[in-house]
Design brief:
The protein has about 160 residues and is α+β, with helices and mostly antiparallel strands. It is about 20% helix and about 40% strand. The protein contains 3 helices and 8 strands. A 6-stranded antiparallel β-sheet has the order 1-2-6-7-8-5. It has a two-stranded antiparallel sheet with strand order 3-4. The relative contact order is 0.18. This is PaaI family thioesterase. InterPro entries: HotDog_dom_sf (IPR029069), PAAI_dom (IPR003736), Thioestr_dom (IPR006683).
């Protein structure tokens, strides 16, 4: 088991799995913590995470109106896709903390600009002996107030099992 991985005994210190994973991200993943990444929901073969809108994460379009909100940089959505896709795999593994997971391929398709908080939901497609695949949808609230998909992605991840 990786030295910094939480143990199942550690879960007893937290109210739920979401809280434990949030603590792990905040304490061990400086970049994700800086982005404000939060673990919203953990299911069996699925996970939802979010990143709040922050102007430091935006790009303003050259032809934007003065009152137009800047778009979140696409790399923020890609980071969220990569992170939630890999972590979701752990929910479909018998010993979720006894493995290491590394991204081997990431595909992101951008559908529209994101001008509000990002919410990404990953669904595990398959976890084999050494490779897992997740599909991810990222949503954001559009200026018209409707929540819409802003990016979709698929990640393939190498699963390193101990033993």
């Amino acid at each position: 088991m990786p030295e910094d991985a939480p143990t199942m005994d550690a879960l007893e210190e937290f109210d739920d799995l979401e809280s434990m994973l949030q603590y792990f991200l905040d304490e061990n993943q400086d970049f994700l913590s800086w982005l404000g990444t939060s673990v919203d929901d953990v299911g069996d073969g699925s996970m939802t995470m979010s990143i709040p809108y922050d102007e430091k994460l935006t790009n303003m379009r050259p032809n934007a109106a003065d009152d137009e909100q800047a778009d979140l940089h696409g790399g923020v959505a890609a980071t969220l896709i990569d992170t939630v896709g890999g972590l979701a795999l752990r929910t479909a593994i018998d010993d979720p903390f006894g493995v290491r997971i590394a991204t081997i391929n990431l595909n992101v398709n951008y559908l529209r600009p994101a001008t509000a908080d990002l919410v990404a939901t990953a669904d595990v497609i398959r976890v084999g002996g050494s490779v897992g695949v997740s599909e991810i949808t990222v949503e954001s609230t559009a200026p018209d107030g409707e929540t819409k998909p802003v990016a979709i992605g698929q990640g393939a991840y190498r699963v390193f099992r101990s033993g």
